[in-house]
Amino acid sequence: MKELVETFLNYLSVERGLSFNTLVSYRGDLKEYAAFLSERSAGALSGVTRDDIVEFMSAQKARGISSNSIARRLAAIRMFYRFLVRERVLKDDPSGLVDTPKLWKKIPDTLSVGEVEALLAQPDLRRARGIRDKAILETLYATGMRVSEAVDLKTGSVNMDVGFLRCIGKGNKERVVPLGGKAVESVRLYLEKSRRKMLGKKQSDYMFVSRLGRRLSRQSVWKMIKSYALKAGIKKEIKPHLLRHSFATHLLERGADLRSVQEMLGHSNISTTQIYTHINKDRLKSVHKMFHPRP
C-alpha cells in the first residue's frame, strides 16, 4: 500500500496541482488509514469493505480527532480509491458507499477591529525586522491571504502603483486581491528601508525574507504573530488563519457581498465562505439583545 500511496500522491502533485501542504496532510491521513488496516489484519486492499472504513472513522472519533480532520481523511481515502479504480488496481470503490459525516461548522476565532489595531501597532519600526513584520501583518489583514500564500509571495506579484497583488492559492489557482492603502504604505517602507538590509548580498524573488536573506517559513510567521499578540495583550488563542478570519468577518460586518469575499479568499465553494455569515449573525443577535427594549 505504501508504494500505491506514493504513486497516488505523485498524481495529485503533477496532474491535479495540489499544494505541498495538502499533500503532506493526505500522506499523513493515508498513513493513519494504512496503520488501522494493518492492526485489523484487513489483508489486501481488494478485501477492504465499507464497514472497515466506517470503523476507521469511528476509531478516529474515539481518539478525539476533530470532525473536520475526520472528514478530510475520508476525502483522502475516497480520492485514493477512485485513483486505484481508475488505474485498474481495484475493481470496486468501497468508500463510495460511506456517508460523509454531518459536520458541525465550528465558527472560527476572530479579532475585533480594536484587537487588530493593537496587533498591528506592536512591531518596532526603528528596526528592519519590525518594518518587515509590520508589512507582513498589514498584508495578511488587508488581503485575507493564508500565511502559506504570504511566504510564497513574489516581489513581481505585487503592483504597488495600482494596489493589487497576485496570489497563488490552493490547487495552484491564481487570484488578484486589493492590497489597500495602509498595507501599500507598509510594504513600500519595507522595500525601501528593510528588505535590502536583510538580503545583504543575496538575491531573492520572495517578497518577505528572513534576517539571513532567506524565504520565511510559515512557522516563523505564525510565531511572530503569536509574539505580537501576547505583547498586545490579546488573550484569544492565536492560530495561523486568525487575521484571515478577521479580514472576512470585518468585511461582511460592514456590508461586503459574500461573492466578493469568496473571490478574495480564494474559496472554490461559497459554502466555505458562508461560515463567516454565522459570525455576523451572532454579532447581530448580541447587538439586538443589548439594545432592544424587549430582548
In short:
By secondary structure, the chain is mainly α. The protein has helices at residues 2-14, 20-39, 50-62, 67-86, 113-120, 128-143, 147-151, 181-193, 195-199, 218-231, 242-253, 258-265, 270-273, 275-291, and strands spanning 158-159, 164-168, 174-178. Helices cover 57% and strands 4% of the residues.
List keywords for this structure.
4% strand, hpI Integrase, Chain A, 14 helices, 2 domains, mainly alpha, 295 residues, single chain, three-stranded antiparallel β-sheet, globular, DNA polymerase, domain 1
Task: Describe the 3D structure.
The protein is mostly helical and 295 residues long. It folds into two domains: 2-97, DNA polymerase, domain 1; 113-289, Intergrase catalytic core (hpI Integrase, Chain A, Orthogonal Bundle). 57% of the residues lie in helices and 4% in strands. The chain has 14 helices and three strands. Helix 1 (2-14) packs antiparallel against helix 2 (20-39) and helix 6 packs across helix 11 (242-253). The radius of gyration is 22 Å and the shape is globular.
